[in-house]
# Entry
Amino acid sequence: MKIDKYIVNNDVLNFTRCDQIYFNSNERLNDIFDKFNFKDKRIFSVLGSGDQAFHLINRGARKIDLFDCNNIAVYYFYLRVWMIRYFDMYYYSNHLNSTFIKNIICKVKPINSNENNALYFWQKIIKMKIFDEYEDSIFVRNSICMANNKIDDLKKLKHYLKHNKFNFHNIDISGEISVDKKYDYLILSNIAEWISSSDYNNIWQFCRNVDQLLKDDGIAICSKLWNDDNDKRVKDILKRLFSINNLNDSTNYLPGYYLVKK
# Structure
């Protein structure tokens, strides 16, 4: 049984949506973000592994709001915040274990309600004594990108994490959302690729949400925008709303496109 199902079945935190967690981003973020200027910008980013947020902070973003449809991603994000804060550590090798997590959470002094909730989550997980058994099923990994994404100098990151509280939106960006802000950048990874071609409304809703969240001169940075199944439908709708621009030297681990409003 996956740990997310175990948690739900045992009603630890009354989860409604949870899934595997990205251990690290599956994109080479340094190569991607070098192409854009995030300094003093307002950004709406997928949370995922937390790598996107950490890199945006390190590049001087002014305000970052985070979204994910996976509830557990927030708790993993704060585990990584504590690794940075208390251990000056960006990644912990390829695998976490309960002993290391215990060493982390015994040092934690929550500075806001989000951290307090995350601490409660990890305390419960450790108390269940199932983490080590299910660790491989908890995380999705991409070891190829870890070296590229590692941040060596953590001073700026530590300062920001000490003084700023994040806004989290537990949403599916291809569904109805209630976010009333406008952003300079949206960081969407490969979300569009996973929208089912059988649900035309979801494709439209995703495109409409991106359009509404972006400022008039805003940019949405994406990985793959479509797959073989939803190819034509997604392309056709996106082209009605955006100029679709290819990023140079794209590979499987670089986003292929960025979108600009027409």
